[in-house]
Amino acid sequence: MKLSEGVEQAVHCVTFLTGLSPDGLVSAASLAELFGVSTSYLLKHLQALSRAEILEATLGPKGGYRLARSAAGVSLLDVVVAIEGASPAFRCAEIRRRGPNPLPARYFSNPCEVKVAMLRAEQAYRTELAKVSVADIAAAAMAGDDGAIAARGCAFLQLNEKKTGNRASS
Amino acid sequence: MKLSEGVEQAVHCVTFLTGLSPDGLVSAASLAELFGVSTSYLLKHLQALSRAEILEATLGPKGGYRLARSAAGVSLLDVVVAIEGASPAFRCAEIRRRGPNPLPARYFSNPCEVKVAMLRAEQAYRTELAKVSVADIAAAAMAGDDGAIAARGCAFLQLNEKKTGNRASS
User: Fold this and answer.
1) Strand partners, A67
2) Counting Cβ atoms within 10 Å, is residue B123 exposed (0-12), middle (13-18) or buried (19+)?
């Protein structure tokens, strides 16, 4: 089971954007610089987060990204689903129905026990992720910081945050 | 997040092998026929299950596979880990430490809150999978069967099960 690298990048970007001014924006290039990742690759993830209405995107040279809703209203599950899609991790090809002398479909009217158990476990995973918001992540990060990490973030924002003077619509 | 198709094949094969005679074996080719999948592809998964000591493999033209331990002692988690590996699904590249003016490593002595939350959710997933054995899966399948599915399995075993007369070591 693998999550794409984009999940880490997406969660960190969204968490970082919780620290913006209400009228602030940060460009994809600035976020890519902050986290030392490829801009073009990150852009794909930021666009997925915008499509999921987690981020609000403003286009153009003065454009950038900010949260589309409160940090408490964005869970880790929201971010993972935005990047990875909502499909289950377990792929059921119904191989129990194949092979020689297959029985008619009516013999398999109940869902396969394997699928039921695998999806139950995925639900437990999703339930845990849904419990944690990016506000929680930001608060936990601040609680473990003696001030240096926050100061570095603030210095970065002073250089890279764009002020729009309003909450522009995307 | 994706699991490989091999997980479904592996769980069904191991569950099917719970129905063998104590001295029975089924070849990879027979299991591939039963589930309508490629033998060479399935063989890779059967070998992984053998390495994980879930199956016992007997080599040679009279060889095949059977459970290496009791069906109650093989959990879905055992099978998933055998096929997918034990690495976490979440990949942490520590991007919080990158970018301009990186802080010294001592500022990041605590594990990243993102990683902690992601791995906590994975633990919930694994805990659920560990609760279910292939004996449970086989029992649930039998409970939902009016006899036709079991009869088809028995007919298949009559044609394809090899009897060794003993519990050979692998």
Assistant:
1) A55
2) middle
The model's pLDDT over B16-27, given as tens digits with 9 standing for 90+, comes to: 999 999 899 999
Query: For A163, phi and psi rounded to 5 degrees?
Result: -100, 130
Chain B environment of A5 (Cβ under 8 Å): 91, 93
Q: Give this prediction's pTM.
A: 0.92
Residues 22-81 of A with CB under 8 A from B: 33-37, 76, 80
Give the pLDDT confidence of A82-103 residue by residue, as tens digits.
999 999 999 999 998 888 888 8
Structure tokens at B92: 């942490």
With CB atoms and an 8 Å threshold, state whether B33 touches A149: no
Interface of A with B in 83-142 (CB under 8 A): 84, 89-93, 95-96, 98-101, 103, 107-108, 110, 112-114, 116-118, 120-122, 124-129, 132, 136-137, 140-141
Map out the domains of chain A as residue ranges: 5-86+133-163
Phi, psi of B106 (to 5 degrees): -60, -25
Task: Produce one character per residue of B34-63: b if its CB has 16 or more CB atoms within 10 Å, e if not.
Answer: bbebeeeebbebbebbbebebbbbbeeeee
User: What is the interface pTM, i.e. ipTM, of the complex?
Assistant: 0.92
Helix (H) / strand (E) element for B125: namely helix B113-130
CATH architecture classification, A5-86+133-163: Orthogonal Bundle (1.10)
